[in-house]
Every structure is written in C-alpha cells, then in structure tokens.
Amino acid sequence: MKIALAQQRADRDREANLRRALEAMDRAAGLGAQLIIFPELVIERFFPQRPNDAKARELAEPIPGRITGLVAERARRHALVTVFNMYESDGDGRFFDSSPVFDADGSLLGVTRMVHITDYEGFHERIYYHPGDHGAPVYQTRVGRIGVCICYDRHFPEYVRALGVQGAKLVVIPQAGTVGEWPTGMYEAEVRTAALQNGYFAALCNRVGAEQKLTFSGESFVVDPEGQVLARGKSLEEDLVVVDIELAQCDRSTARRLFWRDRRPELYREWL
Predict the structure, then answer these.
(1) How far apart are CA 23 and CA 113, in angstroms?
(2) What single string gives the DSSP state of each residue in 62-127?
C-alpha cells in the first residue's frame, strides 16, 4: 500500500494551516495513498518553544470537535486512514499533545496522547501538556494495525516495545524535530533500531520551517522492519512523501522470526 507523510510548516494563520492540511489529504489520495500522517501540532506554531505563552491554551480544542470533524469528513471522502496531531483540551482543565486516528470511513478510532513530557530549552512542554493517560494503543484500521508514538515518546524503548507487543505493523511518529537531529544523528538510529527490534515499519513525519527560536528540519523518513530507510523528505522544505510499503513483510522480519520467538518476558517483566 502507499502511505503519505505530509511534511508541512505552520504559519501564523491557523485556518490557512488547516486548509493546507486538508489539501494535503486531497493530494495524497490523488497519488493513491491509503494512509496519511501529519507532523506534531499540524496547524499551530510550536508554542512550547516559549516558556510562558499565556494564549496557548486558547488554541486547544476538544476531540471530537470542529477540527477533527473536518479531518474526519475528508478522510471519509477519500477512504484515507489519517493520523493527525493537535493540542487537545479534555474539558476538565487538562491539555494534551494528541493524535486522533481516523479510519478510512472517517470514524474516530481513538486518540493517542503523548505520555512522556519533557522540559528543556526550546521544548517547555510540561507547562502546556499533561501526561497522556491512554497508554500506548494500537488501532485496527482498514489498512492494518497502526500504533502512534508522539515525538518525545520515541526515546522510551518500553513505549515502542509496547506497540510491538500489541501487534503494530506500522508505527507512525508525529514529530517536531529541529535541524541536526537526523539523518546523521542518533535520533534516527533509535527509530531504525525500534523497527528492527520489533519487526514493524516506522514512519516519522516532521514539521518544517523557521519559527521564533527553532528551525524544524523536515527530512521525514520511513524505515522497514529491518531498519532500512525507504524514503526521506526534503530538508527545510515542505514535502509530501509517498512510499509503498508491504505490511506482510513484518511477518518475515528478523524480529518476528528470531527476536520475538526467543524473548523471555517472564524473567525481566518485574524490572520494567
């Protein structure tokens, strides 16, 4: 099947950003994609780069809500499994970095919320996000079993393993990554390693563009279950990366033939 990674920037006009995201869905469908993935905070400037943005919480919206309704309608129109990412308000005073997942009929299968929340220069996320409370769900979509790993969560091997344990064949990573994180850095290596060790495809979709303090690099990429890079987006430019993958390859992977067969979870479960 074909999957599409909508590597895009976020300008100050949220509605224009949303329109471009919906147009990316149109283009992806026109190219034969059956699934589309978006970067972290698709329609927002990356507000966590600032430690005190008093207006940031005004941007949060419920799920389901207006934004997800528009995305769901477009997913249904194109029979396009869609992994979005947005700033979510749960209505009870909590806020999350969230990826709603829509099946090809536009139905909302669920919402993955980022679990691990960090704070360092340029990424003051603890000010804005509560830790996700939905665990590490895997969704049975029309195209296969899909897991979502939002940005910082990819650094935690327990999380990416949990997606594999639940049978994910593709793990998608909505990302806000800056210049220099890949392709030469260890951050790409850990995604490739997760794919190899768990026997699934991984697709990291990154935002792009210079903002107040940070420059997001793009360079989205897809790796196969052996950890080999299949495709990469442009550097510092918007791009729609479309790549063919075969989920049946997961069952023939080194991990599924060897590593999973030889696991001993009864010995080390108590340490995790």
Answers:
(1) 25
(2) -SSSHHHHHHHHHHHHHT-EEE--EEEE-SSS-EEEEEEEE-TTS-EEEEEE------BTTB-GGG
3-state class (DSSP) for residue 188: helix
Q: How would you classify the pairing of strands 215-217 and 221-223?
A: unpaired
CA nearest 247: which of 150, 167, 137, 129? 167
For 65-80, b where at least 16 C-beta lie within 10 A, e where not — what string? eebbeebbebbbebeb
Give the residues across from 123 on adjacent strands.
Answer: 120
Instruction: Give the model confidence (pLDDT) of 208-230 as tens digits.
Output: 999 999 999 999 999 999 999 99
Superfamily covering domain 2-263: Carbon-nitrogen hydrolase (3.60.110.10)
Q: Which amino acid belongs to residue 194? A: A
By the 8 A CB rule, do 234 and 7 touch?
Answer: yes
Please give the Cα distance from 265 to 193 (Å, whole number): 19
DSSP category for residue 130: P
Residue 250, token pair as written in the block: 């997961």
What's the CA gap between 25 and 81, in Å, rounded?
Answer: 10
pLDDT digits 0-9 by tens, 149-199: 999 999 999 999 999 999 999 999 999 999 999 888 899 999 999 999 999
Rounded-to-integer distance, Cα 130 and Cα 124, Å:
12
pTM above threshold 0.70: yes
For 213, which DSSP code?
S
Start-end of H helices in the chain: 14-30, 66-78, 157-165, 186-198, 254, 265-268
